[in-house]
UniProtKB/TrEMBL annotation:
<protein>
    <recommendedName>
        <fullName>Leucine carboxyl methyltransferase 1</fullName>
        <ecNumber>2.1.1.233</ecNumber>
    </recommendedName>
</protein>
<dbReference type="GO" id="GO:0018423">
    <property type="term" value="F:protein C-terminal leucine carboxyl O-methyltransferase activity"/>
</dbReference>
<feature type="binding site">
    <location>
        <begin position="148"/>
        <end position="149"/>
    </location>
    <ligand>
        <name>S-adenosyl-L-methionine</name>
    </ligand>
</feature>
<feature type="binding site">
    <location>
        <position position="175"/>
    </location>
    <ligand>
        <name>S-adenosyl-L-methionine</name>
    </ligand>
</feature>
<dbReference type="InterPro" id="IPR007213">
    <property type="entry name" value="Ppm1/Ppm2/Tcmp"/>
</dbReference>
<dbReference type="InterPro" id="IPR029063">
    <property type="entry name" value="SAM-dependent_MTases_sf"/>
</dbReference>
<comment type="similarity">
    <text>Belongs to the methyltransferase superfamily. LCMT family.</text>
</comment>
<dbReference type="GO" id="GO:0032259">
    <property type="term" value="P:methylation"/>
</dbReference>
<dbReference type="GO" id="GO:0009966">
    <property type="term" value="P:regulation of signal transduction"/>
</dbReference>
<keyword id="KW-0489">Methyltransferase</keyword>
<dbReference type="Pfam" id="PF04072">
    <property type="entry name" value="LCM"/>
</dbReference>
<dbReference type="InterPro" id="IPR016651">
    <property type="entry name" value="LCMT1"/>
</dbReference>
<comment type="function">
    <text>Methylates the carboxyl group of the C-terminal leucine residue of protein phosphatase 2A catalytic subunits to form alpha-leucine ester residues.</text>
</comment>
<keyword id="KW-0949">S-adenosyl-L-methionine</keyword>
<dbReference type="GO" id="GO:0005829">
    <property type="term" value="C:cytosol"/>
</dbReference>
<keyword id="KW-0808">Transferase</keyword>
<feature type="binding site">
    <location>
        <position position="77"/>
    </location>
    <ligand>
        <name>S-adenosyl-L-methionine</name>
    </ligand>
</feature>
Length: 310
């Protein structure tokens, strides 16, 4: 079966995000260009995605505020993510934005960008030139590139094509990506980053606390869909998530489960979204939040003080 079921998780996540956006959980003017039809998801799923988006965005905004227009973003397993366009709408200026995913996924994304005038126009604004191949897109400061993250040589080549600068502050983002990659490959990737980039922050959203019945059910559901959780060893708890960074040359790491992340969201914003849908099973939501986390790793002290306060 190979990597196809893992690629399919992109479609599922994108549909979940579109559903939550349609209900008013957060604004995203671009997700509809990548996702057409959706089935309505359960309220706890929508609330889970809201916490995920808000939690990851908190660190993205902190990083960009600190790094300024010199910032680079490398989004691993980006799928149909729309962050580049949302940052443009906010008037955020960064020096380079690179999305990486399997070539099968990036070829779909490139095709969708090519046929969607609003997506293409926002890219054109920066440079006036957009170059497409079957799996890749290059423009002034946006690149969508097909690559297997397990192949460091190929990854280096792609990043060089995108003109990534190894001495600029770089934000690395991975959302439910590393868990599908063999632990030794993830360690090699993180080791390569820490030995190559001089300054940066990694945001990783992923499962944690998987050694209980609820975790077993989650893993069973994913495996039933053919998803090989090759990197699940790092998802035992928050400490194993952090040690993934500190054992591969990163200066430091912190991690929070999604219960903590959700509690840190501004009370008025929580009140607003909790009115959108009636949630019958509060306990199920708490269990879900206990089994996901956000972990950050930093290469230098510039980003060591980042916290979850939103």
């Amino acid at each position: 079966m190979g990597d196809e079921p893992v690629m399919a998780t992109n479609d599922d996540a994108s549909e979940c995000k579109k559903g939550a956006v349609q209900l008013g959980y957060w604004n995203d003017n671009y997700i509809s260009y990548f996702v057409r039809n959706i089935d309505r998801r359960a309220p706890e799923i929508n609330r889970g995605y809201f916490a995920r988006v808000k939690g990851v965005d908190n660190f993205i905004q902190k990083f960009i505020s600190r790094a300024g227009s010199n910032a680079q973003v490398i989004n691993f397993g980006a799928g149909f993510d729309t962050l580049y366009w949302r940052l443009k709408d906010e008037g955020v200026v960064i020096s380079n934005y690179v999305e990486l995913d399997f070539p099968t996924v990036t070829s779909k994304k490139c095709y969708m960008i090519k046929r969607s005038k609003p997506l293409l126009e926002r890219i054109y604004e920066q440079d006036g030139e957009v170059r497409f191949s079957s799996t890749d897109l290059h423009s002034g400061n946006y690149h969508c590139l097909g690559v297997d993250l397990r192949n460091i040589t190929q990854l280096k080549d792609k990043l060089n094509q995108a003109e990534i600068k190894y001495d600029k502050p770089t934000l690395f983002i991975a959302e439910c990506v590393l868990v599908y990659i063999e632990s030794e490959c993830v360690n090699r990737l993180l080791q390569w980053i820490s030995s190559t980039f001089s300054t940066g922050l990694f945001i990783n959203y992923e499962m944690c606390n998987m050694n209980d019945t609820f975790g077993d059910i989650m893993m069973g559901n994913l495996r039933a869909r053919g998803c090989n959780l090759a990197g699940i060893a790092h998802c035992r708890n928050l400490d194993t998530q952090k040690s993934r960074f500190t054992s591969t040359g990163w200066l430091g790491s912190r991690a929070w489960d999604m219960v903590q992340i959700y509690q840190s969201i501004e009370p008025t914003e929580k009140t607003r979204i909790e009115k959108l849908e009636f949630l019958d099973e509060q306990e199920l939501l708490v269990q879900l939040f206990q089994h996901y986390c956000i972990c950050i790793g930093w290469l230098n002290n510039e980003f060591a003080d980042f916290d979850i306060h939103i």
